[in-house]
Amino acid sequence: MSELDAAQRALAAVCLGARVDEAALAALGGDPRRWRLYRDLVRNRLWALALEGLPRTVAAAGVERFGGWFADMLERDPPRTRFARDVAPALAEHIRGAAGDALAAAEPWVSEALAHDVAEHHVGLTADRLDPSRVTDFAMHLPAALDPGHRRLRLRWERVDGEWTERPRALLLHRHPTLHGVEALALSPLAADLLDALDEGTTPATDAVRAVLGRHDVAAGAAFIEGLAALLAELMERGVLVGSRRG
Amino acid sequence: MTAAASARVAGVGLGLRAPLFRDLMTRAPATLRWIEVSPENHIGRGGFFESMLADARGRYPLVTHGISLGLGDREAPPRDFLRALRAFLEEVGSPWHSDHLCFGAVDGAHLHDLLPLPFTEASIRAVVDRVALLEDALGLPIAVENISWYAHPGDAAMGEADFLQEITHRSGAGLLLDVNNAYVNARNHGTDARDFIRRVPADRVVQIHVAGHLTGADGLRIDTHGEAVCDEVYELLALALARTGPVPVLLERDGGFPPFDELAAEIERLDAIVRAAAP
Question: Residue B216 is part of which domain span?
Answer without folding.
Answer: 9-261
